Amino acid sequence: MTSPLEALPALRLPGGLFQLEAADFCAWPGYALLRPASGVASPAAFSPAEAAALGPALARVVAALEAATGAERVYLLAFAEVDRRFHLHLLPRTRLLARGWAAAAGIDPAAPVDGPALFVWTRTHCVTAADLPPGAPDRAVVWGELARRWTEDTGGL
User: Fold this and answer.
1) What is the pLDDT of residue 157?
2) Which of 15, 55, 69, 122 could form a disulfide with 30 if both were Cys (CB 3.0 to 4.6 A apart)?
3) In DSSP terms, which residues pair with 93 in a beta bridge?
4) How far, in Å, CA of 130 to CA of 139, rounded?
5) Which residues, in sequence order, are bridge partners of residue 32?
6) How far is CA 53 from CA 9, 36, 43, 150, 154, in A?
7) Residue 50 phi/psi, 5° resolution?
8) Torsion of CA 152, 132, 23, 54, to 10 degrees
9) 38-71: per-residue pLDDT in tens?
10) What pLDDT, in 10s, does the model give residues 12-31?
11) What does the DSSP assignment read for 64-121?
């Protein structure tokens, strides 16, 4: 199945061990996948270099996502069920996303956020730009800002 979303360029992380890709199945701005370039199925199969690089790369990517999206949290999830290669889902949870989810679910917006439920709702209800809560930023603009911040933070891709 072809994605209805505009393809955005992947960002190769310094050292070439990891790549950041914009999710092509969900329109939420900043939703990304972090993948090892080796395509291993599990972190247990990481090379020593991959194992050593994951933590620092993840810290830099999360910081860039927070800055580019204004996220209060960045959710990190790993399943590797549909795509059996190891990858992390990174979903920037902004105040706007939490309010949109709460309104759709009929939940008091002052109540604590149920992260797993919000994640599932985002994946199933934010498929195209038209599905996003009013006021959501443009996905391509956020990705460009993420790339700019990543370039500034690392000295290049």
Assistant:
1) 35
2) 69
3) 73
4) 12
5) 22, 90
6) 22, 10, 12, 16, 14
7) -65, -45
8) 50
9) 999 999 999 999 999 999 989 989 999 999 999 9
10) 887 889 999 999 999 999 99
11) HHHHHH--SEEEEE---SSS-S--EEEEEE-HHHHHHHHHHHT--TTSPP-HHHHHHH
Q: Which two tokens stand for residue 119?
A: 């994640």
Residue 139's φ and ψ, nearest 5 degrees, are -60, -45
Task: Let me know if 58 is exposed, middle or buried by CB neighbors in 10 A (0-12, 13-18, 19+).
Answer: middle
Q: Can you tell me the distance from the alpha carbon of 83 to that of 112, in angstroms, rounded to the nearest whole number?
A: 31
Question: Token pair 């934010």 is at which residue?
Answer: 126
The dihedral through the CA atoms of 137, 138, 144, 147 has a sign that is positive
Sheet holding 32-36, edge to edge: 11-12, 18-22, 32-36, 88-93, 73-77
Q: What is the pLDDT of residue 28?
A: 97
Q: Which residues contact 34 (CB under 8 A, 6 or more apart)?
A: 18, 19, 20, 57, 58, 61, 87, 88, 90
Residue with tokens 């985002």: 122
Mean pLDDT of the chain: 91
Determine if the pTM surpasses 0.85.
yes
